[in-house]
Please model this.
Amino acid sequence: MSRLPTYAESDRSMKLHETRVKSKFGDRAFAHAGPKLWNMLPWIIRNEHDTDIFKKLLKSYLMVNGSDYIRRINIS
Model:
């Protein structure tokens, strides 16, 4: 049985619930880092349902804002 993502806010915001961590290892875990990265994306990208368009939007966003995005992650 697969688990569906739980949304922290409303379904409209498409933001995922970020888990709390107590260690550096937990901070790097996908269960924490994945939702954190997803929530940092602009709403227009998170809201796209077509995979090909999503990939194009994501690539364009990261090409322009990639270094700022990586700096804000702070996962190391």
User: Anything to note?
Assistant: The mean pLDDT is 78. The radius of gyration is 13 Å. The CA atoms of residues 38 and 51 lie 15 Å apart.
